[in-house]
Amino acid sequence: MLWKESLSLQIKSLNNILQIDLENSVQNVKNLLAQCKGIIYFSGVGKNYFTAARVSDTYTSLGLRAQFVDPVNTLHGGMGVFKEEDVIIAISKSGETIELVRFIEALINRNIRNIILVTSNPRSSLQNISKFVLYLPIEHEGDHLGIAPIASTMVYAAVLDSIAVELSSMRNYTKADFIRNHPGGAIGEMDRK
Length: 193
Fold this sequence. Notes:
The protein has 193 residues and is an alpha/beta fold. The protein has helices at residues 3-19, 23-34, 47-61, 71-74, 98-109, 125-129, 151-170, 175-180, 185-190; strands spanning 40-44, 66-68, 87-91, 115-119, 132-135. A five-stranded parallel beta sheet has the order 2-1-3-4-5.
């Protein structure tokens, strides 16, 4: 497979998301996040571990209280950090990742119920125990095997980032706010000019 063919398949996956009706699902997610009095936690396993961590950084940089949490390490003594007012966004293409299922079950046992699942499986174990599901179908991952998580991680990040942009703009988060939260690098230098 040529790189342009892979890129074309990834773009097609992203365009397909715009063709399906996500309004109700996205509205449910936005409402829950907008009303969150606690912290928005992002979690995932495998490649979605990195997707969750990266998206969490986007939310934080746009003025939303967010944090990445490793589900495996958290199961080993870190469950006490969560509060009932928190929201957890679990990212799992299959919705069956056993480590993530155990983590979500442990949250529910602690009466943490504001769980959003981002998945490409319309009939998953995690769907049955999540408050809301953001179903994002992926026709092709964009690799010669058709299984490497390439398009899916891109689509999940793009949709979740777009929700962050809307929430941030609803809160009237300004360029000055953004720069204040980024004192380092080229963005931080903008504040000194």
